[in-house]
Specification:
2 domains, single chain, alpha+beta, four-stranded antiparallel β-sheet, Deoxyuridine 5'-Triphosphate Nucleotidohydrolase, Chain A, 13 strands, 5 helices
Length: about 260
């Protein structure tokens, strides 16, 4: 074992050592399961982010960086009240995520109010809120983009982050659940705004209460020092109810290039 291996291997979960049989049969051994935690090896065999001692301790304690929670872990977080989903239905739980449903509120863009969209300026009349009443669907036409929101509100602790993803069955119909804002920071509390787009060639009926996406959860290597909602970050969307229009102008920053 080289000096480099003696230093690096204890920082990884395990090292897969090929058996004599695998060597003889030419079976490719398993690679390092935590490759991103290893420093650059002299000679450039492979590269990864350098693993400090804190990361090594987190790995030995069972964290090992961000960990995707399984159904039993999600259920445990919900039962303990660390993760709050309101309302919560156990039937919505999936192997490594939980389904979320569509609320009845939407924000439509009034294209005649402004000649263009400027993220550096407040444009309060850029969107208008509409509510679908009764048993009627919201019709999303081809090429149209609207804001929606989850029926459930989500509250996360300071050591759990989440991601909202679309449903495969809806994606195959041409419905995009979000454009870029699928990440949910630790400490967030509120309804998740959806960026709904129809890339199909026919209108899509959106029924309030239908399954619109799935949320997966990640346990962080350590609790966030300043979770979402802290004064350091502004947290413009903390506690949002329903689809919330962009507030990019509140923190707009431009670097001279």
């Amino acid at each position: 074992m080289s000096a480099w291996e003696a230093e690096v291997l204890p920082l990884n979960y395990t090292r897969a050592v090929p058996s004599e049989r695998s060597r003889a049969d030419g079976v490719r051994p398993r690679s390092y399961p935590y490759r991103a935690a290893a420093p650059n090896r002299p000679g450039g065999r492979w590269r990864g982010a350098r693993c400090d001692r804190a990361t090594a301790r987190a790995a030995s304690a069972g964290y090992g960086g961000a960990v995707l929670l399984s159904d039993r872990d999600i259920r445990a977080e919900l039962d303990q009240g660390r993760v709050v989903l309101d309302p919560y239905e156990p039937a919505m739980l999936q192997p490594s995520s939980i389904d979320v449903r569509l609320d009845r509120y939407f924000r439509l863009f009034d294209n005649h109010k402004y000649p263009y969209i400027d993220p550096s300026q407040e444009q309060p009349d850029l969107t208008r809120l509409v509510e679908v009443t009764g048993d009627e669907p919201f019709v999303l036409h081809p090429g149209e983009f609207v804001l929606g929101s989850t029926f459930e509100s989500i509250t996360l602790p300071d050591d759990v982050a989440a991601r909202l993803e679309g449903k495969s069955s809806l994606g195959r119909l041409g419905l995009l659940t979000h454009s870029t804002a699928g990440f949910i920071d630790p400490g967030f509390s509120g309804h998740v705004t959806l960026e709904l787009s129809n890339v199909a060639t026919l209108p899509i009926m959106l029924w309030p209460g239908m399954k619109i996406g799935q949320t997966c959860f990640f346990r962080l290597s350590s609790p966030a020092e300043h979770p979402y909602g802290s004064s350091q970050y502004g947290s413009r969307y903390q506690g949002q109810r329903g689809p919330t229009a962009s507030r990019s102008w509140q923190s707009f920053h431009r670097t001279a290039v």
